[in-house]
Each structure stands twice: as structure tokens, then as C-alpha cells.
Amino acid sequence: MPSLPPAIAEIRLTVRAALADLPPGATVVVALSGGADSLALAAATAFEASKRGIPVTSVTVDHGLQLDSAEVAARAASIATGLGVEAVVVRVDVEGEGGPEAAAREARYRVLREVAAEIGASAVLLGHTLDDQAETVLLGLARGSGAASLQGMAPTREDDEGLRWLRPLLGVRRETTRAFCAASDLDPWGDPHNLDDRFARVRVRERVLPVLEAELGPGIAEALARTAEQLREDAEAFDEMIHETIEDIVEHAEAGISVSVAALAANPAALRNRIIRLVVDSEFGVSLTRTQTVEVARLVTEWTGQGPIDLPGCSAVRRGGQIVFTASGR
């Protein structure tokens, strides 16, 4: 009996581990663009899920950004059907802030949530690889947005509706997904946007990472992925400390929320800043930049009578022994 090609064995193993954590009777959705990463994920999921009696539905989102997008989506769905997977294609209009890339991503995740809810899926599987993780970390580093961005993408998370988002391939190189497709006689689609250097991610992929590998030696992508993993572990520890702390120092105020100045001052800067960001995000759904966070923290550490600080969606002001956050317009 011939041995299984290494790429197929590696990807099936990672998918098997992801499916093992799902509850009995689970149904899963696989995001399928037709590219090598998502195609390898769909094929491995179809194989592993069938052994566990887990129904699989592939979802291909046609963003309509290219002339042949409908044909590409139909081809991906046809391949999925050939793998024994129920296939769904959804056409969306890409509109929104942040440019077409961000708008397409938002539309894609919205569709995945809607289909998962419609069929009662327990999890959505996404085909992001170790290379995607490395690119995400470098982009976060370039933005200077702190440890939150450098954590990259989580291998698993659960949203407010209890839906699990799984990335089984985060430890797998992109070249492995291509090898999987070649060994499986699957013909992946090559997205031309992946070669369009108008996009920062493409420039990181095609220019920055190759230069780093050439100048610093191999293993840069793996090192960046390890960094993201370590920072996520640190963040989880911080979050646990923050939630324990917040229960004692946060109070609801009229049209907002207040935090004890003395309690904030008693915490180290890293924890104090995280508390401020979490309070604002939880109450007003706003993510503060570092500059905005530091300005709020100065109400605690460098108080000289300065007035309210205008923030996105709210304002912060010191009143007596409290930092009071109030919704804008109140």
C-alpha cells in the first residue's frame, strides 16, 4: 500500500485535531475561495469529517470584484461537491469603509456567520496559514499598534453567539497546501489580487518577507508566528488579571461608566492602559489608539486640572476620585 504524501498527512492531522474538539452532533462550515489554502482545508475537512459523521458545508463568497468572479465561485463549489461537501455560493456587494480589501473581508465574514446560523453550524473553518500569520504580525508591527496586533490571528475563538472560528492551518506553510493540492489532483485558483502590489499584504508577501529571509536567514515566518503565539499567551494572562480587577474598580455612571483613579494609579502602566482600553471598548464599542489611551492615563498620573478628553464615541474626564467615560453627545 503506497504511503500517504507528507503534505496530505500533515494537513489531515491538523484538521483532525481541530474537529476533535467539537461537540457531538456538530456541523461545520468551511470558507472556500478556491485557492490552494482553502481548497486543501476543504478536502482535508471532507475526509476527516466523514469519518466522524460531521456534516460539512463549503461557503464561497463571490465579491464581484473581477469579471470572472461568478465562474470562479461556481468552479470552487463544483470542486467542493466533488469532495462530497454541500456547497453554497453567495454573491455580495462590497461596500464599506477602509477600502475594497477591508470591505470584502467584512462581507465575507458576515456571509459565513449567516450561513452558519442558517444551518446550525458549530464552527467555521478558515484556511489561514503560517505565512498569513507572519504577514499579519509584520503588518501589525508596521502600524505600531502594540501587542494586540502582534498577536496575529487566534487559532480558535468563540464569538458572542457561541460560534467557533477555527484556523487549523496556522501552523502549516503555504507551500504545504500547494503540495497537498498537487498530490490530490486538485487545481487551485490563483487570485490575481494576491499579486497586486497596491495591497500592503502583497508587498509584505512578495518583497518584505523574502528580503528578511535573504538577509537574516531562513525561519523568519516561523519566528514571527511563534512571537504571535507567545504574545497571545501573555495577553490571556493580562486579560484574566484585568477582568478580576475591573469588578472592583468600575461603576456604572449616568450615560456612561466610571473607574477609580486610586485603583488605576495602583496598577503598573501596562495593566492600567489595558483596563482603560477594555472599559472603553466594552462600554462604547471603540478601540482606542495608544495615543488616546495615554492621554486618558494622564488624567490619573499627571492630573493638573485638564478638561475632558474627546475620544471616538465618548469622552473622558476626571471628577473627584473617578475617571468618568460618557457617550458622545451626552
How would you describe this structure to a colleague?
- The protein starts with 5 loop residues before the first helix and ends with a strand.
- It folds into 2 domains: 6-223, HUPs (Rossmann fold, 3-Layer(aba) Sandwich), CATH 3.40.50.620; 254-327, Uridine Diphospho-n-acetylenolpyruvylglucosamine Reductase, domain 3, CATH 3.30.465.60.
- The strands form 2 sheets. A 6-stranded mixed beta sheet has the order 3-2-1-4-6-5, with helices on both faces. The protein has a 5-stranded antiparallel beta sheet with strand order 7-8-11-10-9.
- The radius of gyration is 23 Å and the shape is elongated.
- By secondary structure, it is an alpha/beta fold.
- Helices cover 53% and strands 15% of the residues.
- The mean pLDDT is 89.
Brief descriptors of the model:
330 residues, alpha/beta, Rossmann fold, Uridine Diphospho-n-acetylenolpyruvylglucosamine Reductase, domain 3, 6-stranded mixed sheet, 5-stranded antiparallel sheet, 53% helix, elongated
Entry summary:
The protein has 330 residues and is an alpha/beta fold. The chain has helices at 6-20, 36-52, 69-82, 99-119, 130-143, 147-150, 174-183, 200-216, 220-249, 261-266, 269-284, 290-301; strands at 28-31, 56-62, 86-91, 123-125, 156-158, 164-166, 250-253, 256-260, 309-311, 314-319, 322-327.
